[in-house]
Amino acid sequence: MKRNIFIIGALVLICSFSFVFITGCAKTPETQIMKDTAATQAEQDKAAAAAEAAALAAEKAALEEQMLQEKLLAEADSFKDIRFAFDKYDLSPEARGVLSKLADWLNANQDFEVTIEGHCDERGTTEYNLALGERRAEAAKAYLTNLGVDTMKITTISYGEELPMDPASNEEAWAKNRRDHFVVFSKK
Description:
Radius of gyration: 41 Å
Order of helices and strands: HHEHEHEHE
Largest sheet: 4 strands, mixed
CATH architecture of the domain at 79-186: 2-Layer Sandwich
Structural class: alpha+beta
Number of strands: 4
Distance between the termini: 99 Å
Shape: rod-shaped
CATH superfamily of the domain at 79-186: OmpA-like domain
CATH class of the domain at 79-186: Alpha Beta
Strand order of the largest sheet: 1-4-2-3
């Protein structure tokens, strides 16, 4: 009986040491959590780097688009005003040449529209000059439309004598003031 108790005690002791040895050698949950956290952090870092790269690419594309828009608007500003004879709204050959270049440019750059401003000199009544300025702007619009520019891309306005280019009251100033002015802008 003593021998059986001794054997049972020895077995209990061996089992206890075996249990402690086996559980002591297993990975601790803390080590596994640290490895999982490191892996998750690495994935988050990769995702953040990819998002940052995408944001930089989008910013670069936006800046390039803005620079292109500014370049195109600078080109559009080069279209000079067209002039008219006293009390007329007929388009001269020079005016048709300017309008042809503007039509080509507008057809090549579909994201842009134009407002045609009709102007007059100070002679005549305000009502008459507003009507004449409108006829001048509409004549230019009709010519652009005939050259293939979408009519929806063209607006007109008449300022009559209200916004003179040259405020003097002489023939030279009046000739400058009888004009259509073009304001090109982006639809975006």
